[in-house]
Amino acid sequence: MAAVTPSNSRLKLTPSNSPYLGRPSRSPMRGRQQESWLSLRRVVGTTCRSQTDFDTVNSSFAYVAGGAVVVVNVENENYNQRFYRARPTAVPIYSAVTTTQNASSTPTTSTPKANDSRGRVAPSNRDSIYGSLDWSDSPTSKTWTSRERIKAATCVALSRDGKFLAVGETGYAPRVLIFSLQDASSDIPLVSISEHTFGVNAVAWSADSRYLASLGAANDGFLYIWRVEPRTGQTKLFQQNRCTSYIRHMTWMGSNLITLGVRHVKIWRIEDGSSSPTKSRYFNDSAPSTPTSSQKTLPGRNVLLGGLLDATFTCAAVDGNRLLVCTEAGDVCIMDDDDRQMKLVKAVTLNFAIATITIRGDVAYVGGKDGSFATLDVAAVMDGGSENCILTTATAPTGVLALGFLNDNLVTIDSKQSIDIWSRDHLPGQKQDAIAHIPIPGHGESINGVRPLRRPNKPDASFITWSGSGNVTFWDTEGRQKLSVDVPIEAVEIDSEMGISNQVTCVETLRNGKQLIVGDRLGILKIFDVDTKELLLDTKAHSMHCVSISVCETPTKFIIASCGRDRTVQLFHQLQNGRIEHFQTLEFNARVVQVLIPSDEKIITCSLDRSLQVHDLVTREGEPDVVAAIPSKVISLKASPTSLLMGPDRRSIYISLLDRSVFQFDLFTGRQVSCFKCTDEGGVESAVLDGLTLGNWPARDLDLILGTSNTDKSIRLYDARSGAFLDREWGHTEAINGVCIVEDDDGSKKVVSAGSDGTIMIWLLDFTECSPRSMSRDPSPAKDSTIAGRPTLRKVLSKAELAEFQRPAASNNIRQRSPSRTLPRRSSRLNLKTPNGTLNGQSTIIESTPSRRRPSESQGTSPPASPKGRVSRRPSLPAMSVAARKKSSATNLRAQNTLNTATEQACRTLRAYRRKLSSAEPITAECLTELDQELRLTAAALGDRAIRSKAMNETVLSGLLDQYSERLVTLLDEKLRLTTPSKDRETDILPTTERRGSADSSSNTSSSP
Questions:
Q1: pLDDT per residue over 623-637, tens digit each?
Q2: Which of 201, 345, 741, 967 would you label with 24, given CA atoms 20 to 30 Å apart?
Q3: How far apart are CA 801 and CA 797, in angstroms?
């Protein structure tokens, strides 16, 4: 019987590969059923923040953009982009080899290495956050699939021979990915290395491309050297050591690796068997590795900092045996080696914080985040530095985060996330007139949303994006910037403690992009003319910031609706004279999530109280400029909504909920049509959809629902009819704030997504044949500053004012509403109604009991009922009748609430009817007859009510005496006639009167023997 494996060695009887490397293949259920519907075609912007996020070689350069890496090849004045990213479940072509995989499966007693503080044993897996989980046992673990998707590419390196690309990730289970640059855009890496736990800070290739260095985050604390096969790209762990400092940059100098960061500069020597024992002993500051181990400890030695002990080193540049190290304070340092100890010496000081440096020939190019730029004479700096070593200085309009040289060009990345390709002789800060320049623009800041544009339009753009500062940029499908405008907003700090200031929250376009509707956090709504820069509307619509804006533009009507966090919806429309007027405020019990105007007849809203509200837009008769929204329908939801989408048939609406489902409702009946769960391709996990967008595939008559999921930072595609999952893609590393579908000039459709990371990704929506699963004026700053102090708009229409409007006539395609009708009460022997439908309040049981047979003359000669039936029925009838009356009374109270409420409603109806009588509309004689009868019956019922409640006064009595004198006499005569017959005759006729239930049958029963 096998012994139990000790917990410290983490061995199994059947050893598996490292949990970081030997990832099991996906189960068949999780396999993709077809090629991807979405393929990345263009990336606008970058997430590059330092020199480690950018690299150049020959005529290509690479930079990080969210979860992907973009490689740009420059040829003369043209360039093309390639994209490299790997899905979390991507299976690499080769597996990285570590010593743990080559170790024997038999437990050994070898001692842990000196550099391994985690107690790693040669044949065991490295301790990690995964514990001892056997990954091959649970390939579809929820933890694996839910958290590992969100990864960001944080560092990049190009091999010096131009064959390979190395990418480092940060996130759950980060990887070091190696791609082949010989192929086009790829999502399948050659090698995937998962030895780092928390993140990868930097990757760097050696000059001969034989070694790749990967450095983990400070929490990870490991530096690995990987030997790479030049022909295939296969990797094997060669050396390693701990490095727990906060590193800002890493570079190679010959066979040495240099790391620098916060109060840290260290040189690591790569031992490839050619170094002497003296040098090895000189560099090794750790315990020696065991002689029998196939893996060597990476030796390293700290550099004496001297007066730079408290400095933060940001970047370094190497040219042969010359090394320049820069600090955040603006110092440029050189290395001084006296064969005993290496130390860092300050050579020259610049007056700006240095962010990047590179060397070309004998000139060093230095850039700063504040836009300062300088060139240095490398030879003069290496000689100790002097004032003459500074060749030129300049100031660029934006800061320089990274720069590098190609064969014929200079590439810079500025603080606005824009990439510029210059000629080799250009210096940042110079005039750009006569210089060859290829811009790859970016938005420059976090993007708050994206909207499609109807074409044709003046800037010839396909979509717009906007940021919180009020900048609105127009783009085409190739990522080229067509136009950029700045909408003036209130520069107000909303929360000084939290540092929250006013920002633009939502934007809509009017008239093919000629005008913009902008809402901000202060609740101010503006209409901005793009050409004249004029504000056509500037009003405080909400007391808190705007959430959503919807527009309806028709040849005859122009309506704007906006909702805010103040639980209101503000409605505006354009009058016949062209002026925009606010006409109504809709108030709700909870915050409105989104407002939608599908046509000029309806307004649809959804709020956090789990309800969907439909309002009808109506106009006053003869006054087309007087518009109002009347409540029409309320649909209850199972969870709080997140987004609304009008269906393709314009009769239904899709709504996504927080319970990770999408429901479809019929607007005219309020019934649920369908629903589906927003699951993945395996049906295992679901996500909350936001920003719903409708697309279609005309060739297959297929309707698509496109949405974003910030649960896993993905873009998802579903079949609108069946709810089947079609595809999903990743790319953004922060919140996705918008997605839309645009059409290109060639008829192809593309998906545009924008994120808080400042990147815009343009995807090709590939429909494969596979079965899917006035006066212009300049805005015055003084006037704008007082907008926040204006009172918030309010115009709530009362029910009496709403009663003056008429609902629009039903169209042919709308289901006709059936006329109201009165259902007869079901006949029962327990009812107190007579066959004629009248009820006498003081009548006896005999008078109120209906007959079980239809009244006829033959019933007079029928024999009386059985005494047995009479005895068994008579005692129970009064009690049952009382119970029936109580039940009926309770039902009536619940149906009509209270009699007072019904009386108030009747009074309002009569008042509204009196107003209608002033119109010239004719009334038929039948309607007048029916109205007269109903009024007489109502007056009679009021009289009976007054008599029973004893609430009569002289006025009521005088008004009713003339009307009911004759009826009272008739009732008294009938009562006397029923009480005068003898007791004998009463005994004979009693059974007959019970069966017939009518006073008129007494004459027939008296003649019977």
A1: 888 999 999 999 999
A2: 201
A3: 6
Q: pTM of the predicted model, to two decimals?
A: 0.70
Confidence of residue 464 (pLDDT cuts 50, 70, 90): very high
pLDDT exceeds 50 at position 784 = no
* Strand stretches in 710-748, DSSP E: 714-719, 725-730, 736-743
Task: Please give the order of strands across the beta sheet that includes 558-564.
Answer: 546-553, 558-564, 568-574, 580-587
Token pair of 6 as six digits:
């000790």
3 state DSSP class of 862: coil
Distance (Å, whole) CA 613 – CA 592 = 10
* Contacts for 903-909: CB closer than 8 Å, 24+ residues apart: 908/800, 908/803
b (16+ CB within 10 A) / e for 858-873: ebeeeeeeeeeeeeee
Q: Which of 517, 525, 511 is nearest to 555 (CA)?
A: 511
DSSP state of 92: P
Whole-angstrom distance, CA of residue 476 vs CA of residue 372: 32
Per-residue pLDDT of 167-225, as tens digits, reads 999 888 899 999 999 878 788 899 999 999 889 999 999 999 999 999 999 888 899 99
| Distance, CA of 748 to CA of 635 (rounded, Å) | 37
pLDDT at 276: 44
Taking only the tens place, the pLDDT of each residue in 474-527 is: 999 999 999 999 999 988 887 766 778 899 999 999 988 899 999 999 999 999
Q: What contacts 468, CB < 8 A, 6 or more positions away? A: 445, 446, 448, 503, 504, 505
CA angle (50, 52, 56) in 5-degree steps: 110
End-to-end CA distance of the chain: 109
Alpha helices in 488-581 (DSSP H): none
Could you tell me how many helices (H) and strands (E) the chain has, helices first? 14, 60
Residue 554 sits at the vertex; the CA angle it makes with 553 and 556, to the nearest 5 degrees, is 125
Helix (H) or strand (E) holding 332: strand 331-337
β-sheet with 602-607: strand ranges across: 592-599, 602-607, 611-620, 623-636
Residues in the chain: 1009
Instruction: Residue 37: count other Cβ atoms within 10 Å of its Cβ.
Output: 22
Kindly state the helix (H) or strand (E) to which residue 747 belongs, with its residue range. none
Checking DSSP bridges between strand 481-486 and strand 342-349, what pairing results, if any? unpaired
CA distance linking residue 885 with residue 881, whole number of Å: 6
Does residue 383 carry a pLDDT above 90?
Answer: no
Pairing of strands 94-95, 191-193: parallel
Beta bridge partners of 249: 260
* The pair of three-digit structure tokens given for residue 129, joined into one six-digit string: 């956050």
CB atoms within 10 A of CB 253: 18
The answer to whether residues 707 and 740 touch, using CB atoms and an 8 Å cutoff, is no
**What is the signed CA dihedral for 17, 23, 24, 28, rounded to 10 degrees?**
-170
Residue 488 · residue 499 · CB < 8 Å: no
DSSP per position, 393-431: EEE-SS-EEEEEE-SSEEEEEETTS-EEEEETT--TTS-
What gap in Å lies between CA 62 and CA 367, rounded to an integer? 19
Helix axes 925-949, 954-979, angle to 10 degrees: 80
For residues 527 and 581, give the distance between their C-alpha atoms in angstroms, rounded to a whole number. Answer: 12
Any idea which residue has 């690499």 for tokens? 92
Nearest by Cα to 696 from 647, 660, 738: 647
Residue 336: its H or E element: strand 331-337
Residue among 388, 413, 411 at smallest CA distance from 398: 413
Where are any strands of DSSP class E within 160-234?
Answer: 164-171, 176-180, 191-193, 200-205, 211-216, 222-228
